[in-house]
């Protein structure tokens, strides 16, 4: 039996609340069960130095966890003077995932930064961050269009992300921490709602994963992303 009696192919309860940060060009708070992530989008009328005069814009991301996002207090990374390898890996994942569905030339020479701050963690923080960041990005783009800065939408694809895993020999969708910590295999899928693959991260912790089992996880991920996509559209 899964925590809270969920079916093996069921998402946690997902709620996305938009407009939670009045100063950001786009923002949302995404709640996937007990994982809560604040996602804000900031528009800047410049690009990194290496992109100047390229005629293209840039989309990037930063990720962090508040000290009491978990059961015990974590030190702020700023206090140690550097980001952990995990933090750097996740924020790069978020950034390149979003860039996969943005026409950077159509964006123009401006940068949009997605800040994803984990308020509460119970597994799947990176996937929740990606799903919420796409919403914040779209809201920021809508703002640019309303302000007359952009004439058309450079975001040409809709994406979301979800975790899957094999726990107790059973494939499950959207793992919470209790499941993730004992999974024989865990995977993160970043997919477009029409089935395109953006990125897949999968690791067999116990023994190699048969191809047939991977196919089952992939099918669960497609189902989950389709459902997340409907939630994204409903709040936009």
TrEMBL record:
Residues that hold phosphate according to the record: 86, 124-126
Domain Exoribonuclease phosphorolytic residue range list: 11-140, 159-224
Pfam families named in the record: RNase_PH, RNase_PH_C
Catalytic reaction list: tRNA(n+1) + phosphate = tRNA(n) + a ribonucleoside 5'-diphosphate
Domain of life: Bacteria
Gene3D superfamilies: GHMP Kinase, N-terminal domain
PROSITE patterns assigned to the protein according to its UniProt record, in alphabetical order: RIBONUCLEASE_PH (PS01277)
Entry EC number(s): 2.7.7.56
Keywords: Nucleotidyltransferase, RNA-binding, rRNA processing, Transferase, tRNA processing, tRNA-binding
Quaternary context: Homohexameric ring arranged as a trimer of dimers.
UniProt family annotation: Belongs to the RNase PH family.
Function: Phosphorolytic 3'-5' exoribonuclease that plays an important role in tRNA 3'-end maturation. Removes nucleotide residues following the 3'-CCA terminus of tRNAs; can also add nucleotides to the ends of RNA molecules by using nucleoside diphosphates as substrates, but this may not be physiologically important. Probably plays a role in initiation of 16S rRNA degradation (leading to ribosome degradation) during starvation.
Name recorded for this polypeptide: Ribonuclease PH
Organism: Hyphobacterium lacteum
Lineage: Bacteria, Pseudomonadati, Pseudomonadota, Alphaproteobacteria, Maricaulales
């Amino acid at each position: 039996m899964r925590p809270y009696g969920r079916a093996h192919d069921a998402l946690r309860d997902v709620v996305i609340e938009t407009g939670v940060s009045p100063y950001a060009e786009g923002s949302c708070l995404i709640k996937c069960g007990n994982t809560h992530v604040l996602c804000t989008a900031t528009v800047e009328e410049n690009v990194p130095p290496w992109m100047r005069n390229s005629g293209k814009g840039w989309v990037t991301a930063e990720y962090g966890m508040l000290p009491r996002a978990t059961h015990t207090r974590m030190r702020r990374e700023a206090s140690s003077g550097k980001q952990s390898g995990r933090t750097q890996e996740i924020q790069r994942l978020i950034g390149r995932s979003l860039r996969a569905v943005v026409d950077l030339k159509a964006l123009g020479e401006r940068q949009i930064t997605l800040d994803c701050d984990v308020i509460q963690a119970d597994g799947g923080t990176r996937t929740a961050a990606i799903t919420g960041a796409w919403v914040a990005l779209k809201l920021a783009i809508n703002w640019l269009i309303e302000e007359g800065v952009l004439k058309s939408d450079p975001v040409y694809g809709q994406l979301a992300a979800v975790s899957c895993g094999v726990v107790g020999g059973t494939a499950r969708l959207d793992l919470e921490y209790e499941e993730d910590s004992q999974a024989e295999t865990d995977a993160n899928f970043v997919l477009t709602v029409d089935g395109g693959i953006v990125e897949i991260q999968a690791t067999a912790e116990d023994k190699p994963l048969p191809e047939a089992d991977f196919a089952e996880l992939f099918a669960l991920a497609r189902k989950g992303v389709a459902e997340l996509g409907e939630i994204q559209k409903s709040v936009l």
